[in-house]
TrEMBL record, chain A:
<keyword id="KW-1133">Transmembrane helix</keyword>
<feature type="transmembrane region" description="Helical">
    <location>
        <begin position="265"/>
        <end position="290"/>
    </location>
</feature>
<feature type="transmembrane region" description="Helical">
    <location>
        <begin position="215"/>
        <end position="236"/>
    </location>
</feature>
<keyword id="KW-0472">Membrane</keyword>
<feature type="transmembrane region" description="Helical">
    <location>
        <begin position="173"/>
        <end position="195"/>
    </location>
</feature>
<keyword id="KW-0813">Transport</keyword>
<feature type="transmembrane region" description="Helical">
    <location>
        <begin position="114"/>
        <end position="134"/>
    </location>
</feature>
<dbReference type="InterPro" id="IPR000522">
    <property type="entry name" value="ABC_transptr_permease_BtuC"/>
</dbReference>
<dbReference type="GO" id="GO:0033214">
    <property type="term" value="P:siderophore-iron import into cell"/>
</dbReference>
UniProtKB/TrEMBL annotation, chain B:
<keyword id="KW-0813">Transport</keyword>
<dbReference type="InterPro" id="IPR003593">
    <property type="entry name" value="AAA+_ATPase"/>
</dbReference>
<dbReference type="InterPro" id="IPR027417">
    <property type="entry name" value="P-loop_NTPase"/>
</dbReference>
<keyword id="KW-0067">ATP-binding</keyword>
<feature type="domain" description="ABC transporter">
    <location>
        <begin position="3"/>
        <end position="235"/>
    </location>
</feature>
<dbReference type="InterPro" id="IPR017871">
    <property type="entry name" value="ABC_transporter-like_CS"/>
</dbReference>
<dbReference type="Pfam" id="PF00005">
    <property type="entry name" value="ABC_tran"/>
</dbReference>
<keyword id="KW-0547">Nucleotide-binding</keyword>
<dbReference type="GO" id="GO:0016887">
    <property type="term" value="F:ATP hydrolysis activity"/>
</dbReference>
Length: 355, 246
């Protein structure tokens, strides 16, 4: 009997063929990502038409390909400011969403998000110290470097607290992460309170709530490489991920070396979060809601969930950043404010649906 | 494929749960493991599929030391139907059954038409061919157990471990599951809590008490000693009930 052609009457809980739909879904999402990015580059205080944006990008990729219909100022705005920011939005959106999906499988809890394991609080602490006390406070580390260093410190501390003879259990991982997150928050709140300048405190708050405003081309390679390598590894491991989501004993009985695999996932997701938070602050809700939306569209199998989550996260954060720049222009909104406006209603709907 | 436990001991959080258990599962037989709650049945089964590490003793499967086998290889030899519920994420029945192919797959290999064929075939064998695309979470308890048996079939292992496969099922589904295991003719070790079912379905029965295997047959003396109840043949039981309550 062929699964593709079998006639199945739709009983409650029956899904239509996921396989054929998956290809269409991926195509639609890729188009959405490109469209949102194009729009993001065009929109802003200085208007640059969609065609002009396309021309500028084409001209940079293949010089002399198109006739110039734009001014040097427009070119500078699009190529030096808006495009790196738009690319960073894609990387951060995709990365946070994928990390959320993986952590939900790792700790077997649908309410897990990338900031559950304390790593982002470590990054925030590093960033706050540099913001308030200056770069000399941490031996000349830049803001991003200090945030990443904070994330690494948090990663090691969470591991040390959560492991028991080298094995990580989800419950201990969550407890250690949550406890450390509170500790880090206490420390950076103290540092902030002691800060002399109210201006610094305001800047820090804005950074903590997430902003892509500092994007430059030279800060993109590291997140891009870590994200691509991470997603490639996770896709290759989609079967063990499914097994682990089904339970520790199930995964063991299916030949997954659970202790080693969990450690790999923990280190990988923590590094990803560290790199992303270091570039853009802690953007809430993306990692929580996007994986759920992806599963509603593509089912629970990680081979489909991971690519759909990445694309959906990228498109979502691109639209969120457009909204953050335009709604209250010329002032920018912190991204967590915008994601929360979309995220909280979705989250409540999800809770009701599960109950 | 023969499974042998030789002096198996398992310690959980410093407490000794299984103490020196000896047990043999012969190829082609359905071997039952019975005992009171907390006697160590589940712990023994979990050690036999490497979910727990033995503190002492040896487990051999097909003649090889289990803990020295690569995890993938032991999963190709041993499949498990446990009580754990893979329903946190909304997997379809097909997703759950295809998980059985995990130990046969390299990281980048795709799910093939053959995998899908095996999946459909196994679901037919457990009488759930119509349910491939249903959400696993929406199934009844008996259907879920049958899906897990289908997953074990797809896994292609020659030894099946069942950890209280009938708990939480109503009586008809309990019998369905045991009939199914019997019909498949696969070598199996099943922890069971119903003594009548164990005697009816198993070729051989081990009795556990206090972490030890205390008998390899379910005699009336053993039942009285281990379970603290009197064993009465069914005809006599019916007769005595009739006398008490005419």
């Amino acid at each position: 009997m062929s699964l593709e052609t079998s006639q199945v009457t739709r009983a409650p809980g029956v899904r239509p063929s996921a396989r054929g739909r998956f290809t269409i879904l991926v195509i639609v999402l890729v188009v959405a990502v490109v469209a949102a990015t194009w729009l993001a580059v065009s929109i802003g205080a200085v208007h640059v038409g969609l065609a002009q944006c396309g021309g500028i990008v084409a001209d940079h990729l293949v010089p002399g390909l198109v006739t110039r219909t734009w001014t040097p100022v427009q070119e500078q705005i699009v190529w030096d400011y808006r495009l790196p920011r738009a690319v960073l939005a894609l990387l951060v959106g995709a990365g946070l969403a994928v990390v959320g999906a993986v952590l939900q499988a790792l700790v077997r809890n649908p309410l897990a998000d990338p900031f559950l394991l304390g790593v982002s609080s470590g990054a925030s602490l590093g960033a706050v110290i540099v913001f308030v006390l200056g770069t000399s406070a941490l031996g000349g580390l830049s803001l991003s470097a200090a945030a990443f260093a904070g994330a690494l410190v948090a990663l090691v501390l969470v591991y040390v607290l959560a492991q028991r003879s080298g094995r990580l259990t989800p419950a201990r991982l969550v407890l250690a992460g949550v406890a450390l997150a509170y500790l880090f928050q206490a420390v950076y709140s103290f540092v902030l309170q002691q800060a002399q300048s109210g201006r610094a405190a305001q800047q820090v708050l804005f950074w903590l709530l997430g902003s892509l405003g500092g994007a430059r081309w030279d800060m993109l390679p590291i997140p891009a490489i870590v994200l691509v390598a991470g997603v490639a590894y996770l896709l290759a491991q989609h079967r063990p991920l499914n097994a682990l989501a089904a339970g520790e004993d199930t995964a063991t009985s299916l030949g997954v070396p659970v202790a080693r695999f969990r450690l790999q996932l923990f280190v990988l997701t923590s590094l990803l979060v560290g790199v992303l938070v270091a570039t853009s602050g802690a953007i809430a809700f993306v990692g929580l809601i996007v994986p759920h939306a992806a599963r509603l569209l593509a089912g629970a199998d990680h081979r489909r969930v991971l690519p759909v989550t990445a694309l959906l996260g990228a498109a979502f954060l691109q639209l969120v950043d457009i909204a953050a720049r335009t709604v209250n222009a010329p002032q920018e909104l912190a991204l967590s404010i915008v994601t929360a406006v979309f995220g909280v209603p979705f989250f409540l709907w999800l809770l009701r649906r599960r109950a | 494929m023969r499974l042998v436990l030789d002096g198996l001991a398992v310690t959980l959080d410093g407490r000794s749960i299984v103490r020196g258990a000896d047990l043999v599962v012969e190829p082609g037989e359905l071997t039952g493991l019975v005992g009171p709650n907390g006697s160590g049945k589940s712990t023994l089964i979990r050690a036999a599929y490497r979910a727990l590490r033995p503190a002492a003793g040896l487990i051999t499967v097909g003649g090889d030391d289990l803990v020295r086998l690569p995890p993938r290889e032991s999963a190709r030899r041993i499949a498990v139907v446990a009580q754990e519920n893979p329903a946190e994420l909304d997997f379809t029945v097909e997703d759950v059954v295809l998980m059985g192919r995990t130990p046969h797959k390299r990281p980048l290999s795709r799910t093939t038409a053959e995998d899908l064929h095996r999946c459909a075939e196994s679901l037919e064998r457990v009488d759930l061919g119509h349910a491939a695309r249903r959400s696993y979470a929406t199934l009844s308890g008996g259907e879920k157990q049958r899906v897990l048996i289908a997953r074990a079939l797809v896994q292609g292992s020659r030894l099946l471990l069942l950890d209280e496969p009938t708990t939480h099922l109503d009586i008809r589904h309990q019998l369905d599951v045991l009939h199914l295991v019997r019909e498949l003719g696969i070598t199996a070790l099943a922890a069971l809590h119903d003594l009548n079912q164990a005697t009816e379905f198993c070729d051989r029965i081990y009795v556990m008490d206090g972490g030890r295997i205390v008998a390899d047959a379910l005699t009336p003396e053993v039942i009285t000693r281990v379970f603290g109840v009197r064993a009465v043949p069914r005809t006599q039981y019916a007769f005595e009930r009739l006398k008490e309550d005419p």
